[in-house]
Amino acid sequence: MDTVTTVYSGACPARALLDRIANKWTTLIIGILGEADGPVRFSDLRRSITGISQKMLTQTLRDLERDGLVVRKIYPVIPPRVEYSLTPLGRTLDDPLRALSQWADRHMNEVHAAQHAFDAKSA
Predict the structure, then answer these.
(1) CB 3.0–4.6 Å: which of 64, 74, 93, 117 could bond 70 by disulfide?
(2) Are 82 and 25 in contact (CB under 8 A)?
(3) Given CA atoms 56, 62, 66, 68 in this order, what sign does their dihedral have?
């Protein structure tokens, strides 16, 4: 069985990775880290992503770190300073996710028009 077929199976290990990558918070975090000139502080990430809770940001960053996509650096200062950056593996996701974001920007009006047309037929 080829990869395209197996990825649709719930037992495929790549399925969990696709679930992580397709997560809205992951997409936004990778995008911000990919655009940054250097490491990004936790507080700056939180300010940049409207709607994300501290708990969700922490959990998503931990998951990305565990997956080898993000590296965390802790500075032994008071208060503690924590910075995040993409690993080389994480950088390989930057272009595909940026393309997805650009697609959404380009086609947002078409999708909204389709939604309105669908909703009008359903009403």
Answers:
(1) 64
(2) no
(3) positive
Segment 84-100 shows an average pLDDT of 94
Q: Which tokens sit at 109?
A: 């009006």
Strand 70-75 to 40-41 pairing:
unpaired
What's the pLDDT tens digit per position in 39-53? 999 999 999 999 999
Phi, psi of 76, deg, nearest 5: -80, 70
Domain 3-122 in CATH 1.10.10.10 = yes
- Give Cα separations from 65 to 3, 13, 55, 72 (angstroms): 25, 18, 15, 7
Helix (H, G, I), strand (E, B) or coil at 40: strand
